[in-house]
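Morning, I've got a small favour to ask if you have a moment. It would help a lot if you went through both lines with me. Thanks so much in advance, here it is.

***
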Amino acid sequence: MYGIVRQSDGWIEVESEPGRGSAFRIYLPRLDGGVAAEEAKPAAANASHGNETVLIVEDQRAVRGLAKAILERHGYHVLEAANGAEAQAAFTRHGGRIDLLLTDVVMPGMDGRALPNNCGSCGQTCG
C-alpha cells in the first residue's frame, strides 16, 4: 500500500494509542477535471477462457498463488516469478514468448516498470 501511495505523490498519516487502536489516513492528490464514466459492456461469450501464456511477477507468495490459480482455472498457461531476476530466467526458459506480463509495481531489486526493458526482447514480445 505504501508504495502505491508514494508513487501517486500521496502520503499516509498514522495515529496509534495503546488499548484504543490505530487509525491510518491515506492522502492522494486531487484529480483536476474529473474522469469520464464508461458504460459497462457485456463480456464476450469466450472471454472467460484463454490459452495464452501469462508471466506473473509478484513478491508476495499468496498473491502470486491466487493470481496463478484463477488464471489456470480459465485455461491460461501461467509462469510465475517472485522477483525481476526470476522473471528474466522464466522469460528465457520459455523461449522469449510471453503473451501477457502481469507484474507487481513495487518489488525489491527490479521494480515492475523496469522489468519489460530488462527481459531482453521481452518489451517487443510481451503481448
